[in-house]
Each structure stands twice: as structure tokens, then as C-alpha cells.
Amino acid sequence: MKIAVAGKGGSGKTLLAGSLAFLFARAGHTTLALDADSAPNLAFLLGLSPREADAIIPVSKNADLIAAKTGTSYPGVYALNFSVNDIVTKYAVPTPAGPHLLVMGTVTSMGAGCTCPANSVVRALLRHLLVEHREVVILDMEAGVEHIGRGTAENVDVMLVVSDAHRQSLAIAGKIAQMARDAGIPRVELVGNRIQDPAQDRVIRDFARSRNLPVPGMIPFDPTVTRAGVAGEAVAALKGSAALDAIAGILSETSREMADQEEHP
């Protein structure tokens, strides 16, 4: 299963992505957490220390890797055909939470746009992970989805767009959802976060209904999440919390929907 998670900065998308990766790994699935955010924080949520996280070189910034994949004997000329099959094996980092983590760094357009060697490697790796990789991939994305082109996006099983009940957050969520649909992602759903009362729940569900977006679940406001963040604790510290229980429900609902879709296409 390939799940992309997107949302406005501060919406809680990294909490959802990290928790999903943790829950999949805990259930026995070989899981790869892919951080494609320009301000990567997934490492901390998966239990790596600041020192360990700082030691990770994003794929887009790994000069030795880029040179090895695209270098030629001609100055200013780089190879267009290269294999990325070994990158996960060599560069994905095991985490205390269970999943392996691969930090991509900033990614530009998957199709046209920058043709520099670094972006060529990142684009090829994303295609490989979403098209050929047979294990669970959880992708923590930027707020936009421009870097997922049609040829790759159709291989994401579902995009979960995270939003709280604030109008600005919902407006951005709506734009992201439309971009995801335009990019060819077959299933786009809205997840409410930090829900404190029935009124906020209703605002998000009404918005989702107006955009024809399924809602697989709502994540309640949970002080445990805040305390864990302040203490720098990993997602494993949320065991038994209302937020993690809600995310487990979202995972179950999304998995059930995907199974139904495969059975009745």
C-alpha cells in the first residue's frame, strides 16, 4: 500500500504520516517512511535523536550519490539512464519506531522543470518507490503535489489531506485535494485533526461533503501529543492515546476501503 499524506504546514500531517508508518510496522509490515518535506521532521517522530537526524543527508543533497548515479566522463554532461534500486538498501535508516526512513529533501516538478542531476535522481527514486516497490510506503509530502506527476501519482493508493477546522487550513486542504485529483491520484480523502468539539467535527465534515471528499476518521485534540512533542518523544510514546487510537481507526478504514475497491473495481 502506498499512502501520501499532505496538508498545510502545522496541520499535523507529519503526526499522521509517522503514526501510520509506526502502526503498519507494528502490525508486521515492512514499512518505508519517506520524508519529502523541505523541513523534514519525520525522523524525530520515529524515534531518532537530533544527532542521528542531523547525520542523515537527504537524497537531493547527497553529492556523492548524485555523482555516482549521473556522472559521465564529459564535463557538464550527466547520464539520463541509471538505476535507483539500491538506494533504499544503502541509504534508508532503521528507526526505533520500526519503519525505515528515507529523507528525500526538496523535490521539484516530477515532469518538466529543473533537469539538474539531483532532481533527476530524486524523480527517478520517487517513481521507483511508488511504482515498483512492493512494500508499504508512507509519504510525508510538502503542502503541494506538483512534484508528483501523472505517471507516478496514479500508483499512490490514497492521499490523506490533513486539516483542522480553521478556515485557512480548510481552504489549503481543498486546493491540495484538487491538485491531487488533477495529478491523477485515484483516491483523495480528508482527515480532521485537533477536533475539540462537535461543532469543529461538523465544520470539517460539511466542507468534505461540499468537495466530495471521503472522511476516513477524525483525530481529536489530545494533550498527550503536545506533551510528547515538548518532550521530544517518539510516536511510540502515544500508545493508548486518543489520537493514536483514532489514527489506527483511520488506517483500518482506509485499508478496508482499498480492499473493497480492489474487490469491486
UniProtKB/TrEMBL annotation:
TM region positions: none
Q: Domain named CobQ/CobB/MinD/ParA nucleotide binding: which ranges?
A: 3-232
Q: Enumerate the Gene3D superfamilies for this protein.
A: P-loop containing nucleotide triphosphate hydrolases
* Protein keywords: ATP-binding, Nucleotide-binding
Q: Name one Pfam family in it.
A: CbiA
Does the keyword section mention Nucleotide-binding?
yes
Single GO biological process annotation from the record: negative regulation of cell division
Keyword Nucleotide-binding belongs to the record: yes
| MF-aspect GO terms | ATP binding; ATP hydrolysis activity
A cellular component term, taken from the record's GO annotations:
cytosol
The protein's name is Cobyrinic acid a,c-diamide synthase
Q: Which organism is it from?
A: Methanoregula boonei (strain DSM 21154 / JCM 14090 / 6A8)
